[in-house]
Write a structure and sequence with these properties.
The complex is a heterodimer of chains A (338) and B (282). Chain A has 338 residues and is mainly α. In chain A, 68% of the residues lie in helices and 0% in strands. The radius of gyration of chain B is 24 Å and the shape is flat. Chain B starts with a helix and ends with a helix. Classes of the chains: A mainly alpha (338), B mainly alpha (282). Chains A and B meet through helix 2, helix 4, helix 5, helix 6 and helix 7 of A and helix 1, helix 2, helix 4, helix 5 and helix 6 of B.
Chain lengths: 338, 282
């Protein structure tokens, strides 16, 4: 998350006695130097061992298990058999994707649509808001340091606190939002209901944006500060206005950072669970049910673990497609970035 | 209007806009604190009086739900998991920053790849696995702090690896080379020379992992029942059972936010460095 580079350029390895990079070595020659290679690599292997062990135990094996589970029929009756539940073949996938009579089918499609809306709105709002604040804070003004630090506060507030806080603020009768909109300013005549129906999507999107903005701002601000001032001054002398300078100087420089935040912001938003689940309950309703809340509800409340695993696998596939599309679109920025 | 006074007017209004933006961003947090200082009844009726704060809710919240238990679990689980993740990540991050080895590319890719898998996909097998272990062996990971520590360590190790890597890259190589000339082994140089120099990075990584562990809900709500539940589960139980006790709920929100806010602002100098590492070099 913190780095824009997936495969870092590292200086040549360790001591002066190190041979050339393994990639450049023909296989036969490598075998000939096996002993030396083992001696060279074992230091690094020992270093990564603990990380590899926990990642294999908690990420790799369970993920493989989750994919296998999606081909099994695990429900209330077969759950006691745990790993021995009967095979279901592609039945779980068929039920989700094609079985129009199955409520799961419409539920998943509805949740997928909601997740798309939630993700696009949250990521767009976070990036635009973060950029606007970064531009605003990238000036000299009294109290600069304090303001920049305090601005990060929403990001530090835990998501579950964000959810209870906003749930209280969204209350129709006594919530501060409606008090401001209706009682104090009279912008609206009727008190909107936020936590039910059509507005409930906004009830989860707005706090998510609010919590996401500070990190985006921080990253953009750091990049803006590394843009040489002379560049702007020279362009201004040539008669370029503020908007022109933003589009021709600032935006191209920020492109790699926008790309990285687009990637991770989308993944983070698409897997959002805490905010809807705490604010709206284990069933957030048709208008705000996201993929993750649906999967957890079907798995743990309805004991449909096989269905949940299949829905999770489908979600993973969609995200892999997104990462591939992202790579095709931004590959050049990432490579230029090195 | 002269050019200069026009410039001054623009400057002044941009400053004002900046302070307004800060106020807008902080307003919900201020509202959280203000509400926690009211009484439950006033908040439910919407008749709060901000000029007369009361700390009553901060006393009552510990009795409505067993908040002390949740707090204790959160502190233990998150501290140990963040420390382990930082330790594992400093080793892994050092390997990525300083050495070339066979398996480097797959390892690098796997570290990023873990961020791509939705928690729900591997939560189900972890859940079933923990239940199986409990039924068939003496290993109790379900509803235990050890189980949650194991899960969180694995969760936050990958991100921490990239965090630590960027801190190690900023340390000059000569340091270790000099130590090795002086007879240190490579591991000795890493332990005695590099790590102390990376202390701010270690602290930042620890706080970062702690922040995220503190906020984790998906796994802890599925993998615990009554013993190892953490604050997010407690808050959820609070809403379920005492949905009208807003002041207590807001007080619980304040109590669960204070530790991470303190940790963050105490270390923000280094944390910000880690968070923006990609931005500055890119």
């Amino acid at each position: 998350m913190s780095s824009t580079r997936t495969s870092p350029v590292s200086p040549p390895a360790g001591g002066p006695q190190d041979p050339v990079a393994p990639a450049a070595t023909p296989p036969r020659a490598r075998r000939g130097r096996l002993g030396r290679a083992w001696r060279r690599d074992r230091f690094a292997w020992a270093l990564i061992a603990p990380a590899v062990v926990v990642m294999v135990l908690i990420h790799l094996i369970p993920t493989a298990g989750g994919v296998l589970l999606s081909f099994r029929d695990v429900n209330t009756f077969t759950f006691a058999r745990l790993f021995g539940a009967p095979w279901a073949g592609l039945e779980n996938y068929r039920a989700i994707l094609f079985d129009a009579d199955n409520p799961i089918h419409s539920g998943v499609f509805n949740a997928a649509g909601n997740t798309l809306v939630y993700t696009v709105a949250t990521v767009a709002g976070t990036l635009v808001g973060g950029m606007a604040l970064a531009l605003l804070l990238n000036r000299d003004f009294p109290g600069q340091k304090v303001v920049r630090t305090l601005m990060l506060t929403p990001w530090v507030v835990p998501s579950f606190v964000v959810a209870v806080l906003w749930q209280f603020m969204w209350q129709s009768d006594v919530g501060i939002v409606n008090k401001i909109l209706v009682d104090y300013t009279g912008l609206l005549d009727e008190r909107p209901v936020w936590l039910l129906g059509g507005n409930s999507m906004w009830a989860i999107v707005i706090p998510s944006i609010w919590r996401g903005i500070p990190l985006a701002m921080l990253i953009f601000l750091a990049a803006l500060q590394s843009v040489p001032k002379e560049l702007h001054e020279a362009a201004a002398l040539d008669g370029a206005g503020a908007i022109r300078r933003f589009r021709s100087i600032t935006l191209p420089l920020l492109r790699p950072l926008i790309a990285v935040q687009l990637l991770f912001g989308t993944i983070y938003a698409a897997y959002q669970f805490t905010i809807p689940w705490v604010m709206l309950g284990s069933n957030p309703g048709n208008d705000a049910d996201l993929m993750m809340t649906l999967i957890v509800r079907q798995s743990f409340s309805n004991n449909l673990f096989g269905i949940g695993a299949a829905a999770s696998s489908l979600l993973t596939i969609v995200m892999l497609v997104w990462v591939a599309a992202w790579w095709l679109a931004f590959r050049r920025d990432m490579e230029a970035d090195r | 209007m002269s050019m200069r006074s026009k410039r001054r007017a623009i400057d002044w209004s941009l400053n004002a806009l900046t302070y307004l933006a800060l106020l807008a961003m902080l307003a919900p947090v201020l509202w959280l604190v203000a509400s926690s200082l009211q009484s439950d009844g006033d908040l439910a009726r919407g008749t709060y009086d901000l000029l007369h704060p009361t700390f009553k809710a901060f006393g009552e919240m510990w009795e409505s739900v067993d908040f002390a238990k949740y707090l204790k679990n959160s502190v233990i689980i998150c501290t140990v998991a963040a420390a382990l993740a930082t330790a594992f990540a400093s080793c892994g991050g050092y390997a990525l920053a300083r050495t070339r080895f066979r398996g480097r590319a797959p390892f690098s890719l796997a570290v990023i790849g873990t961020q791509l898998i939705p928690g729900a996909l591997f939560l189900l097998p972890v859940f079933i696995g923990f239940i199986w272990l409990k039924q068939h062996t003496f290993i109790h990971l379900f509803d235990s702090r050890t189980g949650m520590i194991l899960v969180y360590t694995a969760f936050f190790t990958p991100v921490s690896i990239y965090f630590m890597r960027s801190f190690f890259l900023a340390i000059p190589r000569d340091l270790e080379e000099a130590a090795m000339v002086d007879g240190c082994t490579r591991f000795g140089a890493f332990l005695k020379v590099v790590l102390p120099n990376a202390a701010p990075g270690l602290l930042a990584t620890f706080v970062y992992a702690f922040l995220f562990a503190w906020d984790e809900l998906l796994f802890v709500q599925a993998l615990t029942e009554s013993n190892a539940e953490t604050i997010p589960v407690g808050i959820r139980n609070f809403i379920g059972n005492y949905s009208q006790e807003y002041a207590q709920l807001m007080a619980a929100g304040v109590v669960s936010t204070v530790p991470v806010v303190v940790a963050f602002f105490a270390t923000q100098r280094w944390l910000v460095k880690g968070l923006t590492a990609g931005a500055v070099k890119g």
